[in-house]
Amino acid sequence: MNQYIALLRGINVGGRNLKMAEIKACLEQNGYQNVITVLQTGNIILDSPLKVPDLKTALETLLQKQFGYPAQLLICRPGQMSAIISRFPFETGEHEHRYIIFMESGRPEEMIAGAPAVDKPVETVQAAEEVVYWRVQKGLTLDSPFGKYMNKMTGKYLLTTRNVNTLEKILKKCRL
């Protein structure tokens, strides 16, 4: 069995409210083992013998069938998540948020190429091999230039954004 982290996109935002306890029960009833949910924002840890592409398809199909919504998710291994977090490139203070933007398709540098110039005192953005790192002043996440740009990009790319604090909570529940 392999342990995976599944990051569901668009859970409990925009009127799509799903109870994580119901998602957990559904997964367990369908043979997934050691299922753990973290917070109410679509973070799942589970064990499966499947490889990533097959697991992604199986989970999306199951969740769509069970809950009637077009499920989209991104999957990674705990070691991969740990490495991504450890490479966060920006110093942050108590008045800033740290985000990591995960992409299924496309290249991070291409995704941010069309972004407006960031307001350096407010935010900093950097593309990496598989993610985009973003530091933004608290209270300005949705109103910063990059935050507004991100809202436009969700239709073009399969993206999901997580606060680094959330990702660290997820990792604490994983076997590393």
List keywords for this structure.
6 helices; 4-stranded antiparallel beta sheet; alpha+beta; globular; 8 strands
Note down, in words, how this protein is organized.
The chain is built from six helices and eight strands. It has 176 residues and is an alpha+beta fold. A four-stranded antiparallel beta sheet has the order 2-3-1-4. Helix 3 (78-86) runs antiparallel to helix 6 (164-172). The longest helix has 16 residues, at 52-67. The protein is globular and about 50 Å long. The model has no long low-confidence stretch (mean pLDDT 90).
**What is the structural class?**
alpha+beta
How can the largest sheet be summarized? 4 strands, antiparallel
Query: Rg to the nearest angstrom?
Result: 16 Å
How many helix segments?
Answer: 6
Q: Count all strands and give the number.
A: 8
What does the average pLDDT come to?
90
Question: How are the strands ordered across the major sheet?
Answer: 2-3-1-4
**Sequence stretches where pLDDT stays below 50 over 5 or more residues:** none
Order of helices and strands: EHEEHEHEHEEHEH
**Which shape, going by the Cα principal axes?**
globular
Secondary structure: helix percent = 25-40%
Measure the end-to-end span.
14 Å
Beta content comes to 25-35%
